[in-house]
Design brief:
Radius of gyration: 20 Å
Mean pLDDT: 93
Shape: globular
Distance between the termini: 36 Å
Oligomer: single chain
Structural class: alpha/beta
Strand order of the largest sheet: 4-3-5-1-6-9-2-10
Order of helices and strands: HEHEHHHEEHEHHEEEHEEH
Amino acid sequence: MVGPRVVGARLFLPLALLIAAACRQAEDTRPNLILILDDTLRRDHLHAYGYPRETSPSLDALARRSVLFEQAISAAPWTLPSAMSLLTGRYPSSHRVENDGMKLSPTIPLLAEVLKQTGYATAAVVSHIYVDSPFGFERGFDRFDDFGLSKDYRFEAGLEPIAEQVTDHALAEVRRMGTKRPFLLLVHYFDPHWNYDPPAPYDTRFTSPYSGTVTGNYQSFSKYALPGETLPPGALQHLIDLYDGEIAYTDAQIGRLLKILEEEGIARRSVVVVVSDHGEEFKEHGSLGHGPDLYDEVTRVPLLVADLRKPAQERRIKAEVRSIDVFPTLCALAGVPPPRGVQGVTL
């Protein structure tokens, strides 16, 4: 017996093909969609969201051209279920990719699959295993660049590429796709996630003198992660300083990506969305890091939507929205109906 979700997926295909055929008959003027997923990025550590440190000049500039959502809620406090919710428009209880060893059901369409069926070129550049093919993230992408992480991933090996490499690969994918048809590009940066070890000069951008033994390496501070474990004097601020350096470094690389797209005439035909999968705790409630808790520091994430086809104008939305709303919003911008089962709503 064929289940209702399978039937829904099959019924969606003819409609998608009709839209794609219509687009081929005339010039396809739909926007490029650039989705930037900035891992472990706390909303309140961005200057555009009121942080006193200037950690994010590139995102601040983009915010002045964006709809900025002040109360965006992630679907989960860690990467795997949160990223899958972003790309399916469903809560983790619906997509069911909630832990290691799980893979997305073929009956649940990903954003890339939906857009590809309607004529979009699709490419992804990802930098961590929890946004990778073992869990089904590659489906629908013409090209899926994971830097080889899925072949022999080990957390302790530090195999994740740094933001400069991610930007280089993302630009290569844009140039490979060309300008004959609109594209979806997913760019995933991992740098703000521990280990907190930004390259120079960002490693000292915000640091004050510190002589303790705690470093930004996870193994150095993990024993202090649980509530009740007190860090040595000065160590907590040192970790925050390094984390802010990672944010600033990633911000600079996002700025480089957007600047080159602007110079090459691609940005003015594009919509850019910047979002995070979750934030990070720094002992506000006793813990370090992310994963088990649902405090605001972890679940409230930045969300910027910049339609670069239009004159620059900043809008701030105070209403609460959800990361699962990004999927139907991008569908709406592409003129594509979201498939059945999507739980988010267009913004």
